[in-house]
Amino acid sequence: MSHEFPSSSTPAFTYYNDFPQYKAVMNGNANKILSLIQNIMDEVHGEGNILDTPQVKSFEEKFATILDINDRILDHVTLEMDHIEFPERVSNNAQELVVATQKKFSASQPVVFEVQKSSERNSNVQNAGGTSSSVKLLAAKNVSRPQVLFSRQPDNTANPFRPFLKKKPNAIVPLENSMNTDNPESEDYPHPYFQELEAFADEIAKMTYTPASNPVPKSLVDTDFEFVDSQESLDRIMSELKTENEIAVDLEHHGYRTFLGITCLLQLSTRSKDYVIDTLALRDHLNCLNEVFTDPAIVKVFHGSDLDLMWLQRDFSVYVVNLFDTGQASRLLMLPRFSLSYLLQNFANTVTNKMYQLADWRIRPLPQELIEYARSDTHYLLYIAEQLRGFLSDRGLLQSAMERSRELCLRIYQKPKFDSLGYLSLYKISSGNSLNKRQLYALKHLYALRDSIARREDESLQYVLPNHMMKTIAEELPRETTGIFACCSPIPPLVRKYVYDLHKIILDARNNKLGDLMVDELAGEIFDFSEQTDLRSALAASHKMVDSNLIAAPPHDFSRSRTRPTFSNFVRGPGIADSWCPPSQLGKAFEMVRTW
């Protein structure tokens, strides 16, 4: 039947296409066929995009994508057949990545030295400084994305977040009255427990410290433990928690293979028992925790609760009343360090094992070492909190610590909004690279496309396209799609899938007239772009205030100098010879920059 339809190269096609009804039917069927093919490719993880979103693609581009995916599917089938024929070649699904961290790097930016199996673990891995300081990133080759099975799918749109409370335990004001706002134009929702937290402020004002029994906790081996992953076990521990007057709380979170983030574990500890709740399995049932978490008679002890409170609201609509944050207590007491590891070492005489701090907490079943690692974060926390309360009371700071914790509870979760000027923060002149107007145009639209893809695919921005790769693509402006791949090592899966959408932006930046390339008003005010003008010369020629997100640095490397230069008396403008005079606006802006 398909042969009876005229092809695009025949006069009959042009004739029939003049009829709107025929054109509408054919376009509709074409879109349905493309959607079916796209769904099939997604099911087999084809990492390709043939739909005309977010960029329109030519027939040749779509056909080339399908051919490429077919080739990779056949390669994958061949590999799987080899695994079946030679099973001894198949390695274990879970691997330990030995990661050596250096002092000048944060734990979120590890330097990977080697990947090993447990049986081949090398205990002599050292960091660049020569001292043994390794942690393990325990991850699996193929971890299924748990959000696919959620009954309530993540909402990555720009729509404001709304809690999904069905009932409100420990209420002073009923739920239906708590969610009404006086400002109908406001996108933010009112805090459901605002009145209850305001009432608790009166309790804080009357609070006095009475020393309590504070026995040293038993070891993890000698302490009762329960892993909670069913509705029955959740109901049972809820009845146990309601009898306590204090509980320690911590969460384990994953934010790399999802846009908003996922809470993977919830750890609770009482004086006699530890609990680890599988929040992936019980995601739809954890709203019942409000019965305990909003009970003002039960103290909830967190350490560094800023993000934990937001994750509880976002994933479970769980709120907290009567919080004691040991991180805030540490700051009020002006301890040398505010980390949990410092408190454990100095108040519980326990050295934490941070070998698995970079673990992928989505792994199921959860390895025993990860369960023990998660337990250790709350096991000693009640013991530490009681000591901190005593020190705070001696200094008259207990009420201040409780008030700071209450203010944290008053915060509400808000979804991340797209910042149209966020791409400007990628400027780092200290790297030696600068951008002209065409490169700036590419960077701006790559930045927006990455956000759109991340929301659509429910992946993090760094998984879609890391910052350094995005900046490299904008700098190089490759002519061909292979050039985009060359700018990425390794190539992110979604870069393969959306390579033609990325390439369309690059072609627009290369081929459009300079005057047709739209830049933001802020960037246009700061930089006088032309074909020959780059970012460094534009900054030097400008007297106007730069945006606070821009990162600037002097042309010389002072990183090894004992003193840093001051720009408050330098002029940056035409006639760049530095002269001593009152600072200009741009000079003041440079003075505020501290990142280099």
From TrEMBL:
Task: Please identify the protein, giving its name as recorded.
Answer: Exosome complex component 10 homolog
Domain of life here?
Answer: Eukaryota
Hydrolase as a keyword of this entry, yes or no, is yes
Q: What is the lineage of its organism?
A: Eukaryota, Metazoa, Spiralia, Lophotrochozoa, Platyhelminthes
Mind listing the GO biological process terms from this record?
Answer: exonucleolytic trimming to generate mature 3'-end of 5.8S rRNA from tricistronic rRNA transcript (SSU-rRNA, 5.8S rRNA, LSU-rRNA); histone mRNA catabolic process; nuclear polyadenylation-dependent antisense transcript catabolic process; nuclear polyadenylation-dependent CUT catabolic process; nuclear polyadenylation-dependent rRNA catabolic process; nuclear polyadenylation-dependent snoRNA catabolic process; nuclear polyadenylation-dependent snRNA catabolic process; poly(A)-dependent snoRNA 3'-end processing
Q: Which PANTHER family match?
A: EXOSOME COMPONENT 10 (PTHR12124:SF47), POLYMYOSITIS/SCLERODERMA AUTOANTIGEN-RELATED (PTHR12124)
Q: Which SUPFAM superfamilies match?
A: HRDC-like, Ribonuclease H-like
Instruction: Tell me the protein family, please.
Output: Belongs to the exosome component 10/RRP6 family.
Could you state one GO cellular component term attached to this entry? Answer: nucleolus
One GO molecular-function entry: nucleotide binding
